Amino acid sequence: MSQIRVNSTLDFHSDAYRDSFSRINGIVIAGEQEAHDNFIRLAELLPEHCDLLTRLGKMELRHRKSFEACGRNLNVTPDLPFAEQFFTPLRQAFQTVAGHQQVGACLLIQALIVECFAIAAYHNYIPVADDFARKVTESIVADEHEHLSFGVTWLKANFAEVKAELETTNRQILPIVRQMLNQVEADAEKIGMSKQALLEDFLGRYGEVLSQIGFTTREVIWLSSQGLRKA
Ligand code: PL3
Ligand code: FE2
Ligand code: FE2
């Protein structure tokens, strides 16, 4: 009901909508590119899964192209310079753990945190999207679940060896995610999305996968409280 109401107040062709969409569209385009680069790096770090990870990386490039088409459809130029700096802290964190060959930490960042963030964002965007972007985003969400599930499977199988590095990385990354959410809040609201709903959706999905890979309920509550729930 409320989704219908919100939707009817959106004018996809207004300057205000297109201005906010230029940054959101830039973020998803740059985010899909980052995801591609991260999967290619993971393919180097996990040679036994090279073919699969390369395939997942190629899917991200297709997502990038699809979101570029969403921008073109609304006659919007994506703000890529803004998006570039939006991802800088996350990119640096990924590059640091990749440089230390910490595959568990790399997968926590890309396959769990980024993919949960993307799934939460796309899931909240679909009800308020224009018709073209809705169809595109629906097909992309299915792919993101496959990316998440690769991470869950690997981390579950290697849980004991990587548990400590996951805790450290979680503590470093969640404050970055919160900062990213704060940066996108105003534009997300203008295109009909709520920051609170986005945060809750993200935390729900992230907590669920943390418990799937082996953390206890008590640990999950502790982990997801770091950097997100306070303030
Ligand atoms: C993983 O495959 C890609 C990662 C992309 C990250 C996207 C984050 C999006 C946050 C902005 C919320 C608005 C969503 C609107 C969708 C068009
Ligand atoms: Fe993607
Ligand atoms: Fe993905």
Can you tell me about this structure?
This protein is mainly α and 231 residues long. The chain has a single domain (15-228), classed as Up-down Bundle (Ferritin). It contains 10 helices and no strands. The structure holds hexadecan-1-ol and fe (ii) ion (FE2) (2 copies). One fe (ii) ion binds next to helix 6 and helix 7.
Write out the distinct hetero groups bound to the structure. Answer: hexadecan-1-ol, fe (ii) ion
Label the overall shape: globular
Calculate the mean pLDDT score and round it.
95
The CATH topology comes to Ferritin
CATH class: Mainly Alpha
How many E strands?
0
Low-confidence stretches: 1-5
> How much β-strand is present in the residues?
under 5%
Question: What does the largest sheet look like?
Answer: none
- What oligomeric state is this? single chain
State the domain count.
1
Radius of gyration over C-alpha positions, nearest whole angstrom: 17 Å
Q: How many H/I helical runs?
A: 10
Brief digest:
This protein is mainly alpha-helical.
